[in-house]
Specification:
3 domains, four-stranded antiparallel beta sheet, 391 residues, alpha+beta, acyl-CoA dehydrogenase activity
């Protein structure tokens, strides 16, 4: 790690711990994430100290994945940290994708305002289960896009769309292959809000750190100019892979920071709370849980570093990011669960962020692909590699 990145990470950590953490009790935090007012206030402070969008350099280039990890883990030390520093999902993944594949005009219109932290973005891919729409299986996509003259006309429904309320940029995935009877996914860039995209409801979920929550949407005759197609028609699934591998890893980075903080809080509690004549930390049942946390935190850190190295080496890292996502999500859940258990009643209250971290990390085992889907994908790779080796 260079001195430059080390100093940047230290500035980010100082900002999150000293400036952001006190906002965790701000009443502008809700079940559907912090308000736009609160986000704007925090981002103004991040801009003042030079830690807004720290993973992207002034020339628009991204840090390496290893350097990104060094920074994003620090932003995750508070549930508000990624939003304050503009390293949150889905914005961080959307910035990465647009930086790689958007045209110069598309970058100017859609990417640069997000990088500057002026607007948030949303990624509209998942569809309702009751519609038999795309979820873990994107080939089930029901949303359609039909070319009429110079415009694409999009119709369908989307769900669990993180951060849609209050977003200024949307990336919409739709099937442009209806004429052939095939699912040929494409991506479209849209300015938000748009009257053709209506929020049916904001879902009630166990997590609460994402601004705008998660929305169920109806898209009716959304008209998108040709020049707002991202890439070429039918490239949607390929473009999604460009985004998903690093985005999965970024989730791991941020939630590692959150669990590091939860472990700090649980350890401090165990070192001051007494029961049965001694400190909790001196009871083997408590001390060993915190020791297991230390071991797991280090293993998570090493796995993130390994996967980041693979991506930095030029590999798409699809299998590596799947393995990392499964291992990290499941391990961080165990860490958060132990923190709750060590703290007892205080651990399930909102007196600290430990209960929130527990809820957020539980949700992480589902989004960006449930554990079971990633294992199924890895099993298919094992079979494919075995058959190739045997032939």
């Amino acid at each position: 790690m260079s001195i430059e990145i080390e100093q940047l990470a230290e500035r980010v950590e100082k900002f999150v711990r000293e400036i952001v953490v006190p906002y965790e009790r701000d009443p502008r935090n809700s079940a559907h994430g912090p308000s736009q007012e609160l986000i704007g206030e925090l981002r103004a402070k991040a801009r003042q100290v030079g830690v807004l969008t720290p993973h992207i350099r002034p020339d628009g280039s991204h840090l390496t994945q290893r350097d990104t990890a060094t920074v994003l883990i620090r932003t995750g030390l508070s549930p508000l940290g990624p939003l304050a520093c503009n390293t949150n999902a889905p914005d961080e993944g959307n910035m990465y994708l647009l930086g790689k594949v958007a045209s110069p005009a598309q970058k100017l219109q859609f990417l640069e305002p997000v990088v500057r932290g002026e607007v948030r973005s949303a990624f509209l891919m998942t569809e309702p289960a009751e519609d038999q729409g795309a979820g873990s299986d994107p080939s089930m996509m029901q949303t359609t896009a039909v070319l009429e003259g110079d415009d694409w006309i999009i119709n369908g429904r989307k769900t669990f769309i993180t951060g849609f309320q209050g977003a200024g940029v949307g990336i919409v995935m739709a099937n442009t292959g209806t004429a052939t009877g095939k699912v040929e996914a494409s991506m479209f860039l849209v300015e938000l809000p748009n009257p053709s995209i209506r929020v049916e409801r904001v879902l009630e979920t166990i997590d609460s750190s994402f601004a705008g929550g998660h929305s169920l949407l109806r898209i009716e005759n959304l008209r998108v100019p040709r020049e707002q197609l991202l890439g070429e028609p039918g490239q949607g699934f390929a473009l999604a892979q460009i985004r998903l591998s690093p985005a999965r890893l970024s989730h791991c980075m941020r939630w590692l920071g959150a669990c590091q903080r939860a472990h700090e809080i649980a350890s401090a509690y165990a070192c001051r709370r007494r029961a049965f004549g001694k400190l909790l930390i001196e009871h083997e049942g408590v001390g060993f849980q915190l020791a297991d946390n230390l071991i797991d935190l280090k293993q998570v850190e090493l796995m993130i570093d390994w996967c980041a190295g693979v991506l930095d080496g030029g590999s798409p890292g699809i299998s590596e990011s799947s393995m990392t996502k499964v291992a990290v999500a499941d391990t961080l859940f165990r860490i958060a669960d132990r923190c709750v258990q060590v703290m007892g009643g205080t651990g399930v209250s909102n007196d600290t962020i430990v209960a929130q971290v527990f809820r957020e990390v539980r949700a992480f085992r589902i989004y960006d692909g449930p554990t079971e889907v990633h294992k199924w994908s890895l099993a298919k790779k094992i079979k494919r590699d075995h058959l190739q080796a045997a032939s």
